Predict the structure.
Amino acid sequence: MGRKLLLEHINVPGINTLKVYREKGGYKAVEKAIKTMSTDDVVEEVKKSGLRGRGGAGFPTGMKWSFLAKPEGVARYLVCNADESEPGTFKDRYLMTHIPHALIEGMIVASYALGANTSYIYVRGEMMPQIRILEKAIEEAKAAGFLGQNILGSGYDLELYVQPGGGAYICGEETALLESLEGKRGNPRIKPPFPAIAGLYGCPTVVNNVESIAAVVPIINDGGEEYAKIGIGRSTGTKLISASGNINKPGVYEIELGVTVEDFIYSDEYCGGIANGKKLKAVVAGGSSVPILPANLILNTVNGEKRLMSYESLSDGGFETGSMLGSGGFIAYDEDQCIVRNTWNFARFYHHESCGQCSPCREGTGWMEKVLHRLEYGHGKMSDMDLLVDVAKKIEGNTICPLGDAAAWPVASAIRHFRDEFDWHVSNPQLAVEQNYGLAHYADPLPVLAEV
Amino acid sequence: MLRVEEKQEVNFSADLLNKFGDIVGRYPDGKQKSALLPILHEVQAVYGWVSPEAMDKVAEFLDIQAIEVYEVATFYTMFFLRPQGKFVLEICRTGPCNIVGAEKIADYIGEKLGVKEGEVTADGLFSYRGVECLAACGYAPVLQIGPEYTFHENLTKESVDQLIEDLKRKN
């Protein structure tokens, strides 16, 4: 069993309440940080931990904190990004539902480190039940003296508020999130200036994912060096993986970074293998935005090494033969799934969610959706695949925010790895509508796990 | 998009205005516009949708231009710009839900209610629509029902039947 830092007590009855959370050692990190550490000490521990942003980009959290501008007399803000909307990702919902105080505690420690006196948790609007849970947890924490004026007699003040979004994927992009928090449309801002210089209301701001902030708690409790001992290489610590699709045990798993992908998919500790005795065809390893990989390339790198659940190993091979850890949204596809249909589904998602600010993304995502739709419904042409690759290339890198890239990569990678399935849709238009290509040859035989 | 035939008399209750006031208190002075999304959610929870009249009143309350409210209400897909059924069934149709049968569930709901996506049943009780990823992929297929956005997971035809029965009884 891997070590659990975030979900260790997830099954303890009442862990969503302050009382039980404290019985399990909760809010010790707040006491330790505020009573015994300077703000710089806290930032230093997070730097030492090697924690990387858990929302998808993987940028070192401690580094992000150290970039925060601190001009005299200007407010600073910490904003938690709980706008979890990346298809395949549902870990933050899980954490906030079952162990909300882990996030509140992390918010207090992080706000203290950054010198923020007002912090916001921006939660996607659809998560109204989670918003209620967080508001209740904040009330409890405040009543216990962990929030409000003069926390634990230290002279440090902090108010924490929950802000609902309105159902826009783009608001997961940090500058769009800040726009939304200011009561505007979620149009991403041009960077620079980065939020660390001019963020919420033009003030220095740090935006961190739910899981990143919750991870600060064990880092402060055990020390950054202890945290960095878990994991592999620059992928330190534990990561929440949201597992979905055609597997026996979908759900949220906390893994030590570095377990093999094969173990993750087939062992009973995690996904428990592919459902209904089917074979694995493909995997989207880090949320819909990352390149899709066929079974053979997700289990092993092109050099024949076992692929690991880590930032480096999943991206081994670049975009030719690799993917990304992203947000940890792990979607498994069995042999019956149609890659063209799935790619069309994702393209529709990005078209729907494009904010419309940049023409390559606004127009390009629509083009890709239409072309993929005609391929899936038997009206495609052989030139469509090159057309799609061309459109994807023209979106990638030509937009203000990464949504354009996120829309382009799944399409480009699906064509790269499953081109014959796309071709088959063109040459067998009638069959393509009625049945699935069902290419079992993409799937390696079920691997036999070594005896434990 | 804002051409809506239905006119609506809007008078926010004292309770609701108090809620608005509390929400505005979360932000620094002069940044009351930040309250816009939370306030629109409150309006929709009471009225079932966000009418132009309601938007104008919200603009007045927040001391911002009406257009600032319109542009936000039309950008965010959670806000309904025309009346809906009392219960709006919003079914996730993205990736992971899709590969485990969300489309069939959506079709079944349409068939069962006897309406097309976006239409309201004759009794005014139900409407449904497909929405993008609801971040519940491990419990797919899923749907949600506002204004409290209760989640219904691992949907089957049977559980949809049960759900619709329960909602009818609840009414």
Notes: Residues 444-452 of chain A have pLDDT under 50 and may be disordered. Chain A has three domains: 18-229, 238-336, 339-435. Chain A touches chain B through 57 residues (CB under 8 Å).
